[in-house]
Amino acid sequence: MLALGGGAALLVAAAVAVLPVSPASVAPDPEGVDADARDPLTNTVRDGGADASPADPRCRQLSAEIAQMAERIASADPTCALSAAEVTLAFDHCAATAAGAWSLVPRRFAAHGDPAFDDGKSCERIDIEVALVHLGAPNDAGEPTRSERVPFADVPDFAEPVDAGLAANWSRVTSSWGSHSLDPPLFVDYDGDGELEVILKADSDDEGYDPSWFEIDTFRAAPGAGAHVVPYPPARGLLVDDVCDVDADGRFDLMTRGPYAAVTSLDGPGNDVPVVPAIFVQHARTDGSFSDRDEVARQALRMTCPDTPSSPPPTAGGEIEDTARELVCARLHGVSAETLRARLLPTCAALCHKTIGCERDAGAACPDWVDQVLAVPPPLQLPVKR
User: Fold this and answer.
1) Which of 203, 259, 267, 281 could form a disulfide with 300 if both were Cys (CB 3.0 to 4.6 A apart)?
2) Are residues 70 and 166 in the same domain?
3) How many Cβ atoms from other residues are within 10 Å of residue 209's Cβ?
4) Chain segment 269-281, per-residue pLDDT in tens
C-alpha cells in the first residue's frame, strides 16, 4: 500500500501510471504521473492544480465552504502552524459534470494543546473530520441537492472517533508519528452514466511501515431510498494498493496484492508489513466492472512475471519483496510449491537473517512468510512459451 510524515508535506499524490502503448504491451509504469496533474474529467495529463472546475457554481459554493472552514481552523490556535492556505490546498479540488459536483470539505475539527509545553498553549495536534460532498440537481428551493459521506470512517486505527464522536480522517501531529491525511481525489466515470466516481487515498504516518488505504465512491439515487454518496459497488471488497492506467484508456485500473494481501512479516517497530508487492491488475472495463482475468490484466501481469522456464531458482539476494514476487511469479507459471521450497532451502538462512523475528537457530527452516506464500493457490496460470 502507499505511504506521510508528521512534519512532512500535507499531501502525497497517488501514483498514477499512463502508458501511451497498445494493450498488447501494457505494464504499470513505476515512475507514474502525479495525480494532481490530471484533468479530473478526461484523466489526461494537465498543468493545473486545485479547482479543476472553478467556473461551475457548485464548485464555487464548495470552495467557499472550504475557505470559511480553513480560516476557522487556522485561527483556532496560531501555535498549530497550519495556515488557511495549507488547508485550502489540501481540500479544494472540485470536479463537476452536469450530473453533479464533488469535493472534499472539512466540516468539523478539534485542536489539542500539549500540557507538557508552554502551559498547554502549544498545539500538538489538529484533528479534522473531512466529508466527501456531492452537489447534484436543484431541489424544490432551487438549491443543489447535497449528499455527503465521511470516507475511511470504518478503517481501524485511522478515522478513530475523538472529541464528541468527531471522525478524524485528517490529522496533523507536530511532535510524533500519527499524522493522517487524504490525498487530492481522482475522478473518473467508470460506468459511463455521466456521474463521476471518486478515488480517494488515505495515508498514515507511523513508526516504521506507513500504511495507506483506497476507497472508490459514487452517487446513487434509488426510488424510495433517497440519494446518497456510497461505495462504488464493483470495487467492494477489493484491497487496493495503488491505481494506474495500465492500458492508457482513460480509466484508472486498480493494483492489488491479489490473494496474498494477508501474508505479512514484521518490521522493526512490530508492524505487520505485506510481503508480496501489488502486481495484480484489476482492469477497469468499459461496463464499469473490474477484471483481473481479462487479456489486459494478464498481459500486465506477464510484464511483471515474464516467461522464465529456464531462469535460475529464486534467491535471497534481494529484499523480501523481491523473493516473494519471484515465488508468486513462479507459482503463476506452474512451478509447484514443493519444487520452490527445495530451491529455496540453501538460502533459507539468508532469508531468515532479513526477516525480523525469524528464529535463526531453527536449522534450515525458512521464514514463516515463505510457507504462507507457497500455501496460497495461484489465482491464475500464465502459460510459458518454450
Assistant:
1) 281
2) yes
3) 19
4) 777 889 999 999 9
CA-based end-to-end distance of the chain: 35
pLDDT at 76: 76
For 209, the grid coordinates are: 511501515
- Which of 201, 217, 247 terminates a domain? The answer is 247
Residue 79: exposed, middle, or buried by beta-carbon count in 10 A (0-12, 13-18, 19+)?
Answer: middle
Read off the pLDDT of residues 150-166 as tens digits, 9 standing for 90 and up.
999 888 766 666 656 78
Closest CA to 11 of 170, 240, 234: 170
The C-alpha atoms of residue 39 and residue 267 are separated, in whole angstroms, by: 38
DSSP 8-state secondary structure symbol assigned to residue 384: P
- Is residue 108 a contact partner of residue 189, using CB atoms and an 8 Å limit? no
Q: How far is CA 255 from CA 209, 238, 330, in A?
A: 19, 9, 19
Domains in the chain: how many in total?
A: 2
Q: Return the exposure string of 144-181: e unless at least 16 CB atoms fall within 10 Å of the residue's CB, then b.
A: bbbbbbbbbeebeebbeeeeeebbbbbbbbbeeeebbb
How large is the average pLDDT for residues 220-230? 79
Distance between CA atoms of 308 and 321, rounded to whole angstroms? 18
What is the model's pLDDT at position 38?
A: 42
Closest of 56, 58, 60, 29 to residue 45, by C-alpha: 29
Contact by Cβ (8 Å): 293, 316: no
Q: What pLDDT, on the 0 to 100 scale, is given for residue 117? A: 52
Instruction: Select from 256, 254, 257, 258 the least CA-distant residue to 288.
Output: 254
Does 261 fall in a domain? no
Tell me how long the chain is: 386
CB 243 within 8 A of CB 237: no
